[in-house]
Design brief:
- The protein has two domains: about 110 residues, Rna Polymerase Sigma Factor, Chain: A (Orthogonal Bundle); about 100 residues, Arc Repressor Mutant, subunit A, CATH 1.10.10.
- It is mainly alpha-helical.
- The N terminus is likely disordered.
- The radius of gyration is 19 Å and the shape is elongated.
- Helix 2 runs antiparallel to helix 3, helix 3 packs across helix 4 and helix 6 packs across helix 7.
């Protein structure tokens, strides 16, 4: 304690092996407890939302290693800056905003790189017109095609499409996460889709066969 104010540690505890179901506190209570000095509260909070946070990081970064680094950056930032949360949005929205910002910051520092195929269980390919099939090779080729096309978008457009088209957030929710106006999200999504459609057509097996 310092002048009655608790100073939290500089590194967050790992959310691994944390039992989420055993803690009855809601997100706001966990964040408040963390700020007050509860050593376990932050790990429980992060573990509760980790699957979706990881999915967003992976979609934006396009590479598991980069996504893991960005997610760790986000956890550290959220851990240290929890006191800046003002309650103007849900805690999960605030967490997603921190993750997206960490991803965008890391992307802007990185050189462009080739897109990596994305894991099957995180994919929402149907939003881009990719139907499910029992032929694994074709499914993997389709996902790789979408990933390569997504890689051509600028980070802001990609983040908007990840949240709205792939993670299923409403435009309003995405705007709160990204910290921008609803119209800005709509514009980024529209421009991103407009760029993706011709690229996906160009990279389709039919187009490759014609060439």
């Amino acid at each position: 304690m310092t002048d009655g104010t608790h100073v939290v540690a500089q590194s967050p505890p790992s959310p691994a092996f944390v039992s989420v179901d055993s803690d009855p506190r809601d997100d706001s209570e966990l964040l408040t407890a963390h700020i007050a000095g509860d050593a376990e509260a932050f790990a429980v909070l992060v573990a509760r939302h980790q699957p979706r946070l990881w999915a967003v990081a992976l979609r934006v970064m396009r590479n598991p290693d980069d996504a893991a680094d960005a997610l760790q950056d986000a956890y550290i930032a959220a851990f240290r800056r929890a006191g800046s949360y003002r309650g103007d949005a849900q805690v999960t929205t605030w967490l997603h905003r921190v993750v997206v910002n960490a991803c965008l910051d890391r992307l802007r520092r990185m050189k462009s790189r080739a897109a990596e195929p994305l894991p099957v269980d995180l994919d929402r390919s149907a939003r881009f017109g990719i139907a499910d099939t029992e032929r694994p090779l074709e499914v993997e080729q389709e996902r790789s095609r979408v990933a390569a096309a997504m890689a051509t978008l600028n980070p802001d457009q990609r983040a908007a499409l990840v949240l709205v088209d792939m993670q299923g957030y409403s435009v309003e929710e995405a705007a709160r996460i990204l910290g921008c106006a609803v119209g800005t999200v709509k514009s980024r999504c529209a421009r991103g889709r407009a760029r993706l459609v011709p690229l996906l057509v160009e990279r389709s097996p039919e187009a490759e066969g014609e060439r």
